[in-house]
Amino acid sequence: MIYLSTPIYYPNDRPHIGTAYTTLVADAVARYWRLVGEEVYSVTGVDEYGLKIARAAEDHGVTPQEWVDSIVGHFHETWALLDMSFDDFIRTTEERHRNTVQPLLQRMYDAGDVYKGHYEGPYCVACEAYYTAEQLVDGKCPVHKRQVEIHSEDNWFFRWSRYGDRLLEHVAANPEFITPDTRRNEVIGFIQQGLEDISMSRSSLSWGIPLPWDDSQVAYVWFDALINYVSAAGFSDDPDRFVKQWPVWAHLVGKDILRFHAVLWPAMLMSAGLALPRQIAVHGWLLVGGEKMSKSNATQILPSDLVPTFGADGYRYHFLRDVSFGPDGNFSWEGMVDRYNADLANDFGNLVNRVLNIAVSYRGGNVPAVSDHGAAEEAVLVATAAEALAALDGFAEFRTKQALDGVWRLFGAANAFVEATAPWHLAKNPEMAGRLDQVLNAALESLRVGAVLISPVMPSAANKLWAMLGLPGGAGDGPLATTGVFGTFPAVTVTKGDPLFPRIEVP
Ligand code: ME8
């Protein structure tokens, strides 16, 4: 079972292209595993408790519950706009979550990992994180570059310090636990500096989940938020599924929340006696004009600003092809237009038009199922298709660019194949009718394979092409090991349709 998660986002504003990036990679990877034939559970959601949300509600003159209820719809709308296919959407205000957080915190308490203490120090409300004076940059939060607040309260503490050695052992024994390596090294360095116990509750806030042993305090928002991954797996409401589904295959996160996921969360799981995730996959920031795209950013870009021009598929393609998972990536409108026109309108769109046109013009859309693809011209096509299929493995390691590069080499080879075999010449010579059938069949077969291979990234275009090809079911039905292999295009009727990716004219 592939259980894969995105962070649960703060519903303090609608999702922007940065928030959508993590969600999009998770969706493409989930679709890839479904295409392979694996059972998948992919989950996203919202992180509704904590001071940040309580303050946002206060600023708008509504209760926190009213506030989160009014924002959550934007998340559903945005994910629908981008064709996301999640199995679950968790809200931390749900019963199933409270019913998971309380017993898990109780387990940590029973393990002797919780004690009462006094907390005083800098707190960044935007991060919902405690900092030490040394971690601040010019006295400000290192992530948000904003003023921190000094918080001072009697709280419950979690004995994080107890887990340093076990965490280091786990990281050493499981090289895949944190990826990429730069993040893994960062985590090792952080743990080696020594972990300090951390406040796990708030007494000055009521917008949270009460501690089971002290209902005058609520859980510190990260202690409740991280546990969402256990809640969504069915811990309290579907124990049979939980047994099947736990542990997580991969948590996808941005680098801003690396420590919470790679250092705090595993320590909490060890304390609560649950297995650790297989992997924490960390990506960089999406930058706009060199700045992190963020909710407070004046130049904030929303998916709904881009989808009307590029379509959901064009949107998905750009971010999965041009932003590598790991380092920071830059977004620019011009870059997105260039990529769309070059790859989607030209390479892919023209190939589809051309091949369907000739199949309809020369064979009325009915090309016989010739299986002989042994001619020299076909050899390159067949080999490139096999490489493209192999490159799709990149999805298993979040290397979406690698997977798409492979498919585009196939489209390049198919375009070259059509040029080299020149069906328009073959069609003029009745003696070449058999060769024309072979060529048309191979060209259609490369479109069929291409539709399968792009389906995790561009599900809608893949299915439109599938329908034009006259094939039953959907391009992503799989299993990939069968449908992704270059074989014989079946004797079906293909039709021409509207262009999949009309060119974007730049004024
Ligand atoms: O941290 N580039 O929520 P959040 C790339 N609720 N990814 C970005 C991004 C950018 N410019 N901006 C945001 C929280 N993200 C907590 C998480 S999980 C148990 C709790 C993505 O709304 C990226 O995945 O601040 C980042 O880690 C996440 O949004 C932060 O979302």
SSE layout:
Layout: E1 2-9, H1 17-36, E2 40-46, H2 51-59, H3 64-81, E3 88-91, H4 95-110, E4 114-124, E5 129-130, E6 149-158, H5 164-173, E7 178-179, H6 181-192, E8 198-199, E9 201-202, E10 210-211, E11 214-219, H7 221-225, H8 228-232, H9 239-245, E12 250-254, H10 258-272, E13 280-283, E14 286-288, E15 291-292, H11 303-322, E16 329-331, H12 333-363, H13 376-391, H14 400-421, H15 423-426, H16 433-454, H17 459-468, H18 480-483
Parallel strand pairs: 1-2, 1-12, 2-3, 7-13, 12-13, 14-16
Antiparallel strand pairs: 4-5, 4-6, 6-8, 9-11, 10-11, 14-15
Helix pairs in contact: 1-11, 2-3, 5-6, 6-10, 11-12, 12-14, 12-16, 13-14, 13-16, 14-16, 16-17
The structure holds ligand ME8.
